[in-house]
Design brief:
340 residues, Heat Shock Protein 90, four-stranded mixed beta sheet, 30% helix, elongated
Length: 340
């Protein structure tokens, strides 16, 4: 069973039964999921456990009680509770919360957002930002360009499918899906159309350019005086995000530089830039940038440092201090599936 995170939370059955029931806390988590990408609450499984306590039985009327109690406390939140029997014969409730079509809140006007494994309050100007940035569907799953799935770039499609089927991070049950089922599973297609994510990853050049927010990356090198001495730009939209990362690593000459250091009787060549670190920086830049607004990604190389600059502010609820503290939450969850 998955650990708690962006899409999952575990709660003891005591949180929804008897005198220990905390309906406001459950409502807060449901609102947070609804304002993010949706999620699941597993009621009846203790923190740190994978199964409910042996012998645990869910009252038959508890799902209806959940619907009623949460409806009394929330606005624009849909909850779908089901009683599930675990492998040990004990029962728990799987409470599914779809992404809300409009901004969700408590009935007294409080807002929350799921960030990693926490339900964070949204206050002040961030409430307006939550409303203005929100659409009925996440950017990745929208099909606004109406590009048929048959218009996918065959080379990019074949390369992506092969990568998924050979990856040790993809479950065998997912690898067994047909090609079309894989595309649907990873939100690259919906019905007969490519999603925005599909266009970004397996679309043709002119369709990717029509997204208007497909990533453009600039590499700029500065000397000791802060003057620009070299500039490379990847802005023709011919490459998918993963191909873009490969091209940057191969084409920036500074990434090929090596230092020669003494090693006893021999000398050792040491790369000036660690490939894993550079690729990770590029992956983070593409996965966490907002695709609802324009703006280039900049790689600024100074004599003493490499800076990566992304357009837009941090996601709602995320602070600079949280960026270095796991678990983290990707701005574009499905794109992160291919890039991490």
């Amino acid at each position: 069973m998955s650990q708690e995170g962006q899409l999952l939370d575990l709660k003891s059955l005591r949180a929804v039964t008897g005198k220990t029931a905390d309906w406001n806390e459950i409502a807060k988590d449901c609102i947070a999921f609804a304002n993010a990408t949706g999620g699941r609450l597993l009621l009846g499984i203790e923190d740190g456990e994978e199964l409910p306590p042996v012998g645990q039985h869910i009252p038959a009327d508890l799902p209806d009680t959940l619907r009623r109690k949460l409806a009394e406390r929330t606005v624009n939140v849909t909850v779908l509770p089901d009683i599930v029997t675990a492998a040990n014969g004990a029962q728990y409730i799987e409470l599914r919360v779809p992404r809300a079509l409009s901004v969700a809140s408590t009935t007294d006007g409080r807002y929350y957002l799921r960030v990693a494994d926490q339900s964070k309050p949204v206050t002040g100007d961030d409430v307006m930002r939550l409303a203005s940035e929100r659409s009925a569907l996440p950017w990745e799953t929208q099909t606004t360009l109406n590009v048929p799935r048959t218009e996918a770039d065959s080379a990019k499609l074949g390369k992506l499918l092969q990568a998924l089927r050979t990856s040790d991070r993809v479950k065998n049950s997912v690898k067994e899906k047909s090609d079309d089922e894989l595309l649907d599973h990873y939100q690259l297609t919906q019905g007969t159309l490519l999603t925005n994510l599909g266009i970004l990853c397996i679309g043709r050049q002119h369709h990717r350019a029509q997204l208007t927010t497909a990533p453009v990356i600039q590499f700029i090198k500065y000397d000791d005086l802060g003057q620009k001495v070299n500039k490379l730009v990847w802005d023709d939209h011919t490459q998918s995000p993963s191909e873009l990362i490969e091209a940057i690593w191969q084409e920036v000459p500074d990434f090929r530089e090596r230092y020669e250091l003494p090693d006893g009787l021999y000398r050792q060549n040491v790369p000036a830039f660690d490939e894993i670190v550079v690729r990770e920086l590029l992956v983070n830049a593409l996965v966490h940038r907002p695709y609802t607004q324009r703006g280039d990604v900049f790689l600024n190389l100074h004599p003493d440092r490499l800076e990566v600059v992304n357009p837009g502010p941090l996601p709602l609820g995320v602070t600079p201090q949280m960026c270095c503290t796991p678990p983290c939450a990707a701005t574009n969850i499905w794109l992160a599936c291919f890039m991490t």
